[in-house]
Malic enzyme (Dichomitus squalens), 543 residues
Amino acid sequence: MTIVLTPVWSNGVQKLKVTSAPPAKLAHGLTPPMLDDAVHAQRCLAQLRSKDKNIEKYIYLSQLKDADPNMFYRLCLTNMAEFTPLIYTPTVGDACIQYSHIYRRPEGLFISIKDKGRIGQILRNWPRKNEARISVVTDGSRILGLGDLGVNGMPISIGKLSLYVAGAGIRPESTIPICLDLGTDTQRYLDDPLYLGLRQKRVPMAVMDEFMDEFMGEMAKAFPKLLIQFEDFATDKAFAYLDRFRDRYPLFNDDIQGTGAVVLSGFINAAKLSSAASGRPLSDHRILFLGAGSAGVGVAMQLQSFFMLQGLSKEEARSRIYLVDSQGLVFDGRGPMAEHKKYFSRKDYNGPALTNLTEIIKFIKPTALMGLSTTKGAFNQSVIEAMSALNPRPIIFPLSNPVRLSECEFHEAVEWSKGNVLFASGSPFPEQDYNGRTLYPGQGNNMYIFPGLGLGAILSRASAVTDSMVEASSLGLAESLTPDERADDLLYPRIERIREISADIALAVIRAAQKAGVDRSADLRRKSDAELLAFVKERMWNP
Ligand SMILES: NC(=O)C1=CN([C@@H]2O[C@H](COP(=O)(O)OP(=O)(O)OC[C@H]3O[C@@H](n4cnc5c(N)ncnc54)[C@H](O)[C@@H]3O)[C@@H](O)[C@H]2O)C=CC1
Ligand SMILES: CC(=O)C(=O)O
Ligand SMILES: [Mg+2]
């Protein structure tokens, strides 16, 4: 039996009718005589590549995914480096901005503040309740670095879930993209006649708290085996809802924890190369963050474990990390600050405000610079030259998305550091030839982590996602570089190996869940590592 979703109009509003269709007979004559599968794959690729604009490619691919998911995922897996920037960052950013204009058909669940009091009823409209295993939930309040996009944030949930399917073999039917509509504070959407969301400002936090309590409770009832990934909530909400729900439900926040894990992993590999060049011990690194939002502070929290793995105490680890926000260096003497910045706020500086990044670098002498500030060009020539003067191999990670908000581009970092930079960015950049050598940029994006972390949590039936599971995903990724990849100074594995990497990460996550006692698949405890890895790979869906 096949589930058929048909859009129907009722009182001027589109609804989805859910019906079950009997399996269609393979009727002769309804397809062309020479429709060969392999040739059709070539045809689809040619159709995709014939489009000039990436947004047109995005639309083509989302229609292909709907019409022929097997073909979509097959092409995705065999052309990962080409597809990822189209279905994910940077193109998904444009798709979000324009979502209300390019919208074709429903692809996920929309739950609005007007549904408060009957959220459970709405969730039960989802057609494949028993199969639901993973949901990416956004409220659209901070999509990539693009700000409050309201319900136009839906493509980020869809894009992340496509990567779960492609990257970790989660079954497509097990995924639920969700966009919550709590209003938007972006006036151009409120004024846009095509905008698909509620035409109202965002509700106050206290109202949202009540809504979220109902939403999470009803999600657990409707989908008892579901893992939830919170995505692209504005920083205050990101921290507040992770804190509020993480002990009650299996969930993680991708921007805080997934980003923390992916950057820790790339940093471990970069620090080894940097220390090999400088002769300084790993425990001597100092990390400066530009940007102190959910991503900046999430990554800073996770990077403490790098120092603790070198034998430093938590307090010593914290002292190796410096935050800079839009007002400059974050220090106690500066005055009142948001709660999430307090932990890393410096107690050992009490001079005048330090606002110039190059001056701050000369003062602090960091070995690594992390950009999560949404500020294009913030890592300019003077900044990168200051880092290069201090370090034979400076670590420079401009992690803001999409590409046009990146703190610097790869070719700039290569040129200004004279080819010595150890680089990873949030969105992809092309490789560079420098003095007869090919240099490869890393992509420090949580897309390397969440598919494997999610798969591990799902297969172990984890009742919670612990810090130890997140750290295990990071170490699993750091260790997954092949000798060839290390020879090229790569900080992250090649994306074409994502399935293999996700399996390794899932194995590490399952073991961490078992150690923490949050696993509910007791039989997996009896398997050896080799048996468990084989089990993980067997469970992966293949197109
Ligand atoms: N590479 C990856 O995997 C990920 C990247 N990100 C990116 O990180 C960026 C930040 O995300 P959030 O932390 O959630 O946003 P946010 O808006 O909460 O934080 C931005 C931070 O940057 C600071 N900032 C803004 N302008 C600045 C300036 N001119 N100088 C210094 N600091 C400045 C702000 O004070 C704030 O602390 C986004 O672009 C997002 O796409 C987020 C998650 C994952
Ligand atoms: C990659 C990601 O999660 C972000 O930029 O928000
Ligand atoms: Mg995100």
Observations:
- Residues 257-446 form a domain with the Rossmann fold fold (CATH 3.40.50.720).
